[in-house]
Inverse folding.
């Protein structure tokens, strides 16, 4: 069991031990959420009106309930890491969630266009942890020094909640920041820390529809000033990384509905070694 489970469980136990636990979801609410999530059915928001501690308590319960269906947690995600995403959801800082093993697909994968109750897609990036020394890092370059590889990533979240339900930093955290599917590109090994650290800041990320239309474009610094800052932020919230963990740094631009992809999407990372691209097909 990964540390995030213990970390979130502590919030949950502390909440139950006090009268402020009212907004941690009940077992019945979690069961209903999982049924709706698996059937792509819009569902009520959880922990509405609660604190972030309530949301983390709810998230811990949902993660445990989803693992039998989605496989074990293999990493973490920082959400709302770009200005457009924070503006859309009224956030002043990112939010934290997890990545499941069975949500991950390979480059070029085909997915149903309705992969969720409220499906969206985004240009993202994954850092692959190489060494536990990352947990002592305090700067982007120190993070990258402990990263084994960088991988292009199109995340395919499901906002899940019924239209009209509040989508806030708290309710997003409660549902684990909406993980559903994600398409991973080939690994780019980190062989030169300084060069990769610089490239991640200076790269240009372009999200395109299947017909080549540019849907969004942003520099590497669009995510918290540097993509590695997403890892530092997660660590500031108590996450302890292990070698092999995946870190989703968050969206480099807006969340896009599948209809705008016109049958798919691709993301290009100009400035990373090889100017890599990752793509997905919507069926």
């Amino acid at each position: 069991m990964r540390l995030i489970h213990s970390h979130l469980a502590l919030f949950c136990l502390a909440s139950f031990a006090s009268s402020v636990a009212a907004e941690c979801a009940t077992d019945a609410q979690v069961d209903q959420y999982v049924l709706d999530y698996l059937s792509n059915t819009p569902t009520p928001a959880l922990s509405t009106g609660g604190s972030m501690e309530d949301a983390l308590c709810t998230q811990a319960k949902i993660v445990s309930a989803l693992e039998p269906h989605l496989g074990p947690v293999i990493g973490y995600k920082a959400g709302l890491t770009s200005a457009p995403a924070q503006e859309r959801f009224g956030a002043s800082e990112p939010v934290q969630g997890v990545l499941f093993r069975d949500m991950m697909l390979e480059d070029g994968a085909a997915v149903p266009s309705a992969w969720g109750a409220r499906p969206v897609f985004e240009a993202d990036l994954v850092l692959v942890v190489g060494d536990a020394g990352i947990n002592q890092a305090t700067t982007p370059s120190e993070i990258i020094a402990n990263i084994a590889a960088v991988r292009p990533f199109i995340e395919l979240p499901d906002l899940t909640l019924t239209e009209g339900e509040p989508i806030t930093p708290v309710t997003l955290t409660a549902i684990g920041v909406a993980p559903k599917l994600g398409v991973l590109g080939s690994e780019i090994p980190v062989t030169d820390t300084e060069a990769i650290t610089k490239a991640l800041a200076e790269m240009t990320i372009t999200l395109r529809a299947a017909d080549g239309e540019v849907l969004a474009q942003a520099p590497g610094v669009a995510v918290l000033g540097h993509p590695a800052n997403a890892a530092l932020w997660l660590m500031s919230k108590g996450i302890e990384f292990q070698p092999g963990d995946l870190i989703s740094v968050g969206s480099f631009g807006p969340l896009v509905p599948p209809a705008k992809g016109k049958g798919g999407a691709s993301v290009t990372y100009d400035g990373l070694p090889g100017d890599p691209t990752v793509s997905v097909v919507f069926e």
